[in-house]
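TICKET #2291
ISSUE: user wants both folds in one file
ATTACHMENT 1:
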Amino acid sequence: MATENTEILQMHDLKPAPGAKKDRIRVGRGEGSKGKTSGRGDKGTKKRYQVRPGFEGGQLPLYMRLPKLRGFKSPFKKEFQVVNIAALNELYPNGGEITAEDLAVKGAVRKGYPVKVLGDGEATAAFTLKGVKVSASAKAKIEAAGGSVSED
């Protein structure tokens, strides 16, 4: 029987497959590191560094195309909750005294905001409004139906 020359693979014989291990490209470290342009192409801002955010290649940028400072918004503006006379007729069919708190409890307005009553609809009962703003047409209709308004 002929002796077979079998080589046993050992730990110190292991090495990666050819082409599996490559050095990483150190971009922008001069011509000697890896090729003339270091994988950045040729010429222009992107080669040298990077373009700034919002730059559109020389086209007028969006932030300059949009209008600047139009108008004014007062931080002290009062937002009134609006209720029409027609809604008061549904909520208070028999009339009575009405305040902003009562309207908030019934769900007609949100709590903590000033309320204004507008004149859409006809007053069918005598409403006594206290602590709410009232338009001129609403005031005339409520007083014609026998109600009263006090804007305290």
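ATTACHMENT 2:
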Amino acid sequence: MTDPNKPDSPVGDDDWAAAMSEQQDDATSDGAGEDDPWADAMAEQQAAEENPGEQASSDTPAAARAAGDSVFRPLGESTSSSAARELDMIMDIPVKLTVELGRTRLTIKQLLELAQGSVVELEGLAGEPMDILINGYLIAQGEVVVVEDRYGIRITEIITPSERVQKLNR
């Protein structure tokens, strides 16, 4: 076999042995001056396996624990008061409540024929519960009541999410 850098000179077994010993000497001299990250990681893992109760507090840096505490607040008595305080923040947000008597479909011709006194037939039946919508989403059903010459709505049923999906199809 020949050396690629010196194609004319043959390479013998002694040359390979010399190269291998040189490479081994380089590896041991470089490793002695620097810390081996794999060796450190393996030693850390072995220490964690030997002392499982101490790993969370001793292995985790203080900065990581502080960041975790700020993101994930501990559960306790203060959590319920802060949750109530956060809920108070949204209590003044206005929403639009709509009560729907019924629906119908008209052609443009039928719409243009409407005049004062015209009657529009709705799909809802008399006595049937009316839909209560919050910001356009069905949340309940109820019946009309009259209180001191004003209309009102008495909620008779709260709509569950699965019922909302079924009622979207009508």
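RESOLUTION: both attachments delivered.
EXTRA DETAIL ON ATTACHMENT 2: The chain has seven helices and four strands.
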